[in-house]
Amino acid sequence: MLYFPLSARQASAFVTIEFLFFLAIGSFASGFINGLAGLGTALFALGWWLQVMTPVEAVATILIMSVVSGIQGMILVWRSINWRLLSRFLIPALIGIPIGIRLLAYINATVLTTMVAFFLIVYGGFFSFRKHLPNLTRETPVLDSTIGFCGGILGAVAGMSGALPTMLCSMRPWSKMKQRSVLQPFNFIILGLSTLLLAWNGGYPIATLKIVAVSFPITMIASFVGIAVFRQLNDDQFRRLLIVLMLVSGVILLIKEYLL
Q1: CA–CA separation, 101 vs 86, rounded Å?
Q2: What global pTM score does this model have?
């Protein structure tokens, strides 16, 4: 069994204003963005939490907060889920996860993260400033499955399971609910399985569970606020939001990888 103790600095910092500040900011940012778009929890929390947590603690907290904040989103989209469409992404992703775990020993995660970040910045930057959005109307089951498979691998290697599915969904003229009914359950299930695997391997000692307990109410409130904003967006606004989030996510990935 794995055991991930707090360092002396984190152990003493748990009761400090600094620790609570960074924990609260990261919790609110991650919960809000998950409620708003159904993804992006890790990207918007990690930079804050790494200031006061060890990497393993931060990842463990992000995983479980992604799941709990995603519950409200799952309730929102449950009746809209097209399981046949979702399975095109999800089943190949489940196959890709163990492959990604095996590839961890051979792939340089920094290089992979940089490549994905660059791709997100180019795509998000290009379409963020265009009047017309991309318009992929035809059915692409092979492409969907390929994207899902790659998303599973990326999730295992670098925690970025939703990057490629988000990019593909943003290219389609779907309603905001249809897009979210793919992205929300995809990320919820992939990250939920990752949380269970981490818990099975001892990734949630008492110290980490205390952090989770403090983060939980803030994340849930922020997720509720994010969902309220989501309800106010029209379909085109939501598609543009996804595209802008890809641009922002790419920039954050580079900052996290090279400056933090």
Answers
A1: 23
A2: 0.78
